[in-house]
Amino acid sequence: MPIQHCIVHAIDKTGSDQPASLKPANAELAPSALLEELLASFHDAYHAKTKAWGHFIAESDDPHETVAEFASDLAGHLDGNSDFVAFTRAAAERLLPVIDAHLSVSGHLLCVDYRQGETHYFAAALLHQREGVGVTDSLDIVPARQLNLARMSLGLRINLTQWRDGAASRHYLSWIHDRGGKKLSEDLAGVLGATEGIDATGETRTLLKAFSDYVEQQDMPEEQSREQTETLIDYANEQAGRGEPITLEALSELLDEQQPKAFYDHIRNADYGLSPEIPPDKRTLRQFRRFTGRAGGMSISFDSHLLGSSIEYDESQDRLIIKQVPKQLKEQLKKRQS
What we know:
Blueprint: E1 3-12, E2 21-23, H1 33-47, E3 51-56, H2 69-78, H3 84-102, E4 107-116, E5 119-127, E6 129-135, E7 141-147, E8 155-159, H4 160-164, E9 173-176, H5 182-192, E10 194-198, H6 200-218, H7 222-242, E11 246-247, H8 248-255, H9 262-270, E12 277-278, H10 282-286, E13 290-295, E14 298-303, E15 311-314, E16 319-322, H11 327-337
Antiparallel strand pairs: 1-2, 1-4, 3-9, 3-10, 4-5, 5-8, 6-7, 8-9, 11-12, 13-14, 15-16
Helix pairs in contact: 2-3, 3-5
């Protein structure tokens, strides 16, 4: 991930009763292997977070919405009207009220412009430090401070390539939206002039529902069903780890090489209302697994997210209660009774 520009500004927040102040850097950081390592660590931490996905309000069809200064400044910087130091300093100053309102500790605002493959990105995050211990070359134990990336609660990333190319995407911008940090996320979106363009959690759930319906309609053998489930989860998690969306056509091709359009056609024909590209929600993906079992001529397989809704397990009497019997099975049972 070649770094084009990188800078760190200090944010001093000594307590909840003191306003945050900015100590700006005067120059960019020189590219180095250490910076590349930091960017890779930031990627891992950021993509593990729950995020909101959207776009700048300037891309909205609502004529009454105004463009935030952040998007204008970013466009101006990319057009060569300001350098990276000036642009990021202005951005840091705009973030001070958000930090004042929601955070009580100091931090360092990392701003980085970089490329990943052919895609151009800008990312920013408020990083905090934690106290630790280290060992010197003379084998002495000494205090050592290090960045605590897992604690990151304010961060954003913009796919500049999609934004500047005028692509139809409505999710080229993402920002951290952790549980318990809803107001922080909303205020950050306000500073950015951003609005959510896609519900990543809802879209991921709908995709998994579409997949469950597909498996049921295809009446797949248990082993094939398990393999396709793992393929879906592996692909979705890989995309989430890269910060990239799930592409429905690519997923369909992975699920069945012999019929690469089968799952894609199922989604379109059933009109699930899914976007062609879906930012994966990792929390929802973690909840999706298939329970399977076979004994005495009986084979049972169902998606784990159905447990507690369509399917209940009564441990005291060792019973599974199925509330919504699959249509094909229901028809077979009716014929048997008649």
